Amino acid sequence: MNTYDVAVIGYGPTGMTLAALLGQLGHRVVVLERYAGLYNLPRAACFDDETMRVFQKLGIVNDIMQSSVVQRYYEWLNAAGETLHKIEYADPAPAGWAALYMMFQPEIEAVLDRLDKGLPTVEVRQGVTISGIEQDDESVTLRGFDNGGSAVSVRARYAVGADGGSSFVRQQLRPKVDDYGFQENWLVCDFHLRRKVKDLPMFRQICDPAQPTSIVRIGPQNHRFSFMLDPDVTAEQATDENEVWTRIGKYLSRDDAELIRVANYVFRSRIVSEWRHGRVFLAGDAAHEMPPFLGQGMCSGIRDSHNLAWKLDLVLNGRADEGLLDTYQMEREPHVRFITEKAIELGRVQTLRDPVAARARDERLLAGRRAQQQPDKIKLPGLTSGLIADSGEFFPQAVVGRNGTKARFDDIVGPGWCIVASDPEIIDAHSAGQLADWKTFGGNLAVVGRSQGPGCFDDADGAYSEWFAAHGCSAAVVRPDWYVYGTAQDSGKLSALLEGLAASLRAGAKSNAFGNEGRKDHAR
Fold first, then answer.
1. Nearest CA-CA partner of 95 in 478, 403, 446
2. Strand, helix or coil at 133?
3. Start-to-end C-alpha separation, the chain
4. If you count Cβ atoms within 10 Å of the first and of the last residue's Cβ in the chain, which end, N or C, has fewer?
């Protein structure tokens, strides 16, 4: 039996992204998916700038843009139609792309599917159900059967369960689950628009205690209506097609749109206690489920994949101790908990069913608008523990130039680790051998300013000059997932950072190289 580097169980966005990232790094990956084909129905509705930056790394932005649309704002209305709250989204946001894109998930998955199946080191096996997991000190063996009933056995050095909220992998591992106890029963109805519909809301929450409703566009030609259900409404009643058209009759007619999906969902909020069990990991909904009120479910799964992919790459290539993989949950869980708790908080405010409490909410938010108070923007946190030295915040992507050409930073500099400096002298002070070692490690070098020479780029709009000034530093060591390992004021501090990074990768968690001592809280 051949041994793969990584086996991925589940072929949704989390598994697809992980397979593509690892495949582009040259690792042998097998993906096992119980469905014989793509799911072809939408679930997630949107993604953010950091997710688009991952798609940029994968080289699929142009195709992704065909099935997504930039969303500029999010509005809350009360039962009387008054605007309670309006959030405006940045463009560009810190990752160099618009802060929010509304998408049609089946078309996004089709793009990822073509990418995965076009990679020579990635094997996608659909129609395979896993029924058993075994592991030893060197590998994981997955056993199951295909749609024809034939036995399937796969061995890999590591395995990742990205098989959704009903994850078989999670059930086999039997970890403890932290349930926040937030459960809501909703009806979700998706439509394909036959024509342009005047005054159709693009991204609106109707905070009506009699019927909380969410209306969002899901890509250029599709729309979603979601209704919080009363306790006495059965799934059969709610999903009846005539009942659906009655609910949305104010906005759409049968001539305007085709009903393509109706589902009764219970929004849950729970996080698994252990995301790693030996050589088996959990990612995406298999590790954490969150309410949809911040639109971060799919984004969180893709962040999991991105975090795990570059760490697996280092370990598989022998450049890091296996203990590095213990930082996966250490880094990702606080971020997931922050988003989950904020989504619960937001959901509770939006979906108040008590008319008295809803009226008080309306009065408070309307008073804020009259006073021209700007809504608080939710800032996603940086890293506070794991493989970081003294930073942990997200490194922005702006436009840089070279030889008369301007482009986003990642497209010019390239993927992987990067030392970004404001002055070439901070890098030139290092020996040729040190710089050669850094490049062998897969690291890039970038001087962003007005200097000329190899590895020098123009700071086209001054974003990086502002960043260095704001952080009181002249250089930053940036990880492959764009979180800052550490910052330096001079070449000596930069050398110390690089030595500390090398020692941490060699020692791993076995020597307590990773922790939260001296970390700073950062948000973006």
1. 478
2. strand
3. 46
4. N
Q: What is the pLDDT of residues 494-517, one digit of tens each?
A: 999 999 999 999 875 343 334 443
Burial of 381 (0-12, 13-18, 19+ CB in 10 A): middle
Check: pTM over 0.90? Answer yes or no: yes
Query: Averaged over 155-182, what is the pLDDT?
Result: 96
Judge contact between 408 and 106, C-beta under 8 A: no
Give the separation between CA 341 and CA 352, rounded to whole angstroms: 17
Which domains does the chain possess?
Answer: 3-68+103-179+272-346 (3.50.50.60), 399-511 (3.40.30.120)
The partner residues of 7 in beta bridges, in order of sequence, read: 30, 159
Concatenated DSSP letters of 369-431: HHTTPPPPPPPPB--SSBS-SS--PBPP--EEEETTEEEEHHHHH-SS-EEEESSHHHHHTS-
Cis peptide before 94 (omega within 30 of 0): no
CB atoms within 10 A of CB 211: 13
DSSP H or E segment with residue 69: strand 68-70
Q: What is the pLDDT of residues 37-93, one digit of tens each?
A: 999 889 999 999 999 999 999 999 999 999 999 999 999 999 999 999 999 999 999
Per-residue pLDDT tens digits for 338-357 = 999 999 999 999 999 999 99
- Mutual orientation of helices 13-24 and 49-58 as an angle, nearest 10°? 40
